[in-house]
Every structure is written in structure tokens, then in C-alpha cells.
Amino acid sequence: MLLKIIPGALLFFLAGHIVLKISDRRVEASFGPVSYAGASFMLGLGAISLQMFFYSLASIPFSALLISGPWVALGAAMLFLKAFKRTAFRTDGQKMGWAGRVLFAVILSQVLYSFAYSLTMPLSGWDAWFIWFVKARAFFLDGSVKAAFLTDPAYVQDHPDYPLLVPLALSWIYTAIGSVQEEAGKIIYPLQFAALLSILHYGVRRLTGSRTIGLLFTALLSVTPLVLVHGAGFPVQIDTAYTGKDFTGYADLALSAYFLGAAIFILLYALEGRGPFAFIASLMLAMGAWTKNEGLTFALLGFLILVLSALLKQGKGRDFKTLALALVPLAMFILPWSVYKAVLGLGSEYVQSMGPGVFFSNLVRLGQIIPYMAGFMFLKPGVMGLVWWAWAVSAVLSLRWFTSAKTLVLHSLILGQLGIYAFVYTITPVDLKWHLGTSLDRLVLHLIPLGMLAAAILFVP
């Protein structure tokens, strides 16, 4: 089975590589080979899943040849086009040293564990099966995204309004191997885990200039229980105060990787003003919105920061061209699915509760929401590790340069998204205690890598 999975998984890397090349022919000079592969994989997940959705709109049936053919042809053409330079990875001459070797061994052991455990254990999470893998199975069997399936009352509880990046990516794996095998589809989860770690290392090393700091905080993220339980799972309960053992198969790990990637490139654009960084940030924001509905609000928040960065850009003046280009990925990944949902009448139960009347009448809930969120983030080290304590310490230390781009961008993204989640809990139409208990862990997961990034780079002036 593994020999069948590998070609399907490799197409994600190829598609993402092509997207990166199109975004900036020289952007690979900022990457090491591992971080480049990680970014390519995450971008490839988005690109191929969107391709499959467009195929469905055009009534083109899914097949291995029709999906992979355009990417293979583009990849071959790029080898002969002088406009695309050969990849030249970044080397800064820093030696790893004994501490770096130990940290790298920790990271590698966690990645190897994620592959070994995830690929040998059956799918166990109910939401993983019913919300994401059932859709992937249906899309594969139908050879398309069918309106009849999404509007079938029998599947109304599997959230047909959720974006389709994850189920379509799984469906591609099924298409590549020619059958539905959940264990094969799970390959994308340890790959997401590895990609997440590589992207964090890239961001920390790029923004601090230190290989050791990059390895240290990447190692800390790799051993954070809540992250690993989504990348692979555990054979036992990870904490007495938390019931989770295996959340492989959800969409939240992918969303956290897109949030992290977007934050890194938003910050690089704010600091360096290079247009391709804004475009890559927009791709990450757009693919996050294509992963879960929570990504829509983060995309809005991130794009607003890009707009402010462009307006405040020094030198050649305001960068309106960059902003216009950055809108393209957002439009491609958000608008088609939004229109499709509207036509089918697929809506969220929260939309009707978003009015100011509901919010202000429920403000008293914040007295329960904020302590619960803070307690979960700071008082459950068996689930969270030390990430939020490290972030809090870095926030205090960064008060010395509170108006710096690093501080403003990172804290705005973290606190802004947390504020949005608090708002959703304030207006939720379901029982608040139940809602907090069944969803907060995944919402916090979205921001854990971003909190780790902030903790790492805000220690450095």
C-alpha cells in the first residue's frame, strides 16, 4: 500500500513547489530544503483540493491522470523555461553544534513517531470519520463534489457548510491508490505535522538569525501534547483533565499550519516590504479559509494587517499593486465555495445569532468564557505544554519595543483571533458549557504554533 500512497503524496509537494515558483522565482533562496518541502506540501494541499473542486464545477470526473497530469506537465515545462531558476536553498554557515544535534534528534523522534503511530492505528475519532472522511469517501465514490450529497438530510450533522480542503485532499489519496482506505488517507496528517515543524523552524530562524533558537522552539512545539495528538495520537489519555487520545483525521492541524505560515510571511512583508511575501501570506490565509470556517476571520484579520503594512511602506510609497495581487488567492479560494454554498442553501447556525442584540444580551457570558479559556491555555500543561507561558513571558519582555512590527503583528493576530473565538462563544445558540468543553481545545490548537513563534522571536529585540 505504501508504494501506492507515495506518488499521490508527492503530487502535493510538486503542486506546492509550482505555486511557490509562480509566487516568486527567487523565494526559495530564503528557505532551507526541509522548510521548502514543508511549505510546498501545505500549499499543494490547497492547490490540488481547489483544482478538484473546480473540476466538480466543470463536471470533470476525478481521475489520477486528469488531476496529476496538469501538474506534471507544468513541472516538466518549468525545467525548460529559463524564467524559472533552479532552486538554490539558503545556507548561512551556522554549525549545528551538540545542542543543535540533541534538539534535532528530539524533533526527528517526534516526526518518526507521528508516522509510525498514525499509519498503524485505525481511524478512531467520531468527528474525524463523520465530518471529514465520510465526505472524502463520498467524493471519491461519486468522482466529484455532488450537490445531492451535501444537501442530503441524512448527512446534515456532518456540517456540509464546512470548507473542503481536507476531504478533497483525502479524496485525492483515494483516487491515486484507486480505493477507499482510511489508513492510506491518514498519511497527510504526519506530513502536516512535519510541515508545521519545518515552517516554524524557518520562521524562527529567518526572523531571529539563530539556528539554535529555531531548533529549540521547534523541539518545544514537537513535544506539545495537543499538537502531537492531532498529528498522530497517543495510546493513552494525555492528561487526566483532558479526554483526548487521538484526533488524527481532523482539519485543525492543517489550519494551524496555515495560520503560522501566514503570520510569518505577513511579518516578513511588514519588515522587508517584498511583494512576493505578501502574496505567499495571502495564499496561506486563503487556504486557511478553505480549510475551516475559522480561517475566514483569520484571513480578514491577516489581510487587514497586510493593508496597513502596505500603506505604511517606506521608500517607493504605498504598495497598491501588491495588495491587488494579494486579493487574487483570497478570491480564488473563498468566493467559489461561498457562492456554491449560497446556491445550495448551506449555512451556519451562527449567522442568525451575529446581530448586536444577541451579543449585548449575552455579554454576561464573558465572565464564564474568559476564565475558562485562560484556564485551559495556562493551567493544563499536560495538554498545552509551556507554549502559552512562554508567550506570556515574551509579551512582557517585548513591552520594551511595543510599537515594533514584530510585536504589533504577532500580538494582533493572536489576540484578535482569540477575541473572535470569545465572540462566537458569546453568541453561540447551543449550551455554552458543552460548547466550550467540546471545541475550545481545537480552537486553541489553531494558535499554538503562532504563540510559539511569538515566544521565540519576541525574546530578541
Give the amount of beta strand, in percent: under 5%
Number of helices: 21
User: What's the pLDDT, averaged over the residues?
Assistant: 90
Estimate the helix proportion, in percent. Answer: over 70%
Distance between the termini: 50 Å
Give a short overview.
The protein has about 450 residues and is mainly alpha-helical.
Helix-strand layout with pairing:
Blueprint: H1 2-23, H2 33-57, H3 64-80, H4 97-120, H5 126-142, H6 147-150, H7 165-177, H8 182-185, H9 188-208, H10 211-222, H11 225-231, H12 252-272, H13 275-289, H14 294-311, H15 320-344, H16 356-361, H17 366-378, H18 381-384, H19 387-397, H20 405-427, H21 432-457
Helix pairs in contact: 1-2, 1-3, 1-7, 2-7, 2-9, 4-9, 4-10, 5-7, 9-10, 9-11, 9-12, 9-21, 10-21, 12-13, 12-14, 12-20, 12-21, 13-14, 13-15, 14-15, 14-20, 17-21, 19-21, 20-21
Descriptive notes:
With 461 residues, the protein is mainly α. 71% of the residues lie in helices and 0% in strands. The chain is built from 21 helices and no strands. The longest helix has 26 residues, at 432-457. It is globular. The mean pLDDT is 90.
Please supply descriptive tags for the structure shown above.
461 residues; mainly alpha; 0% strand; globular
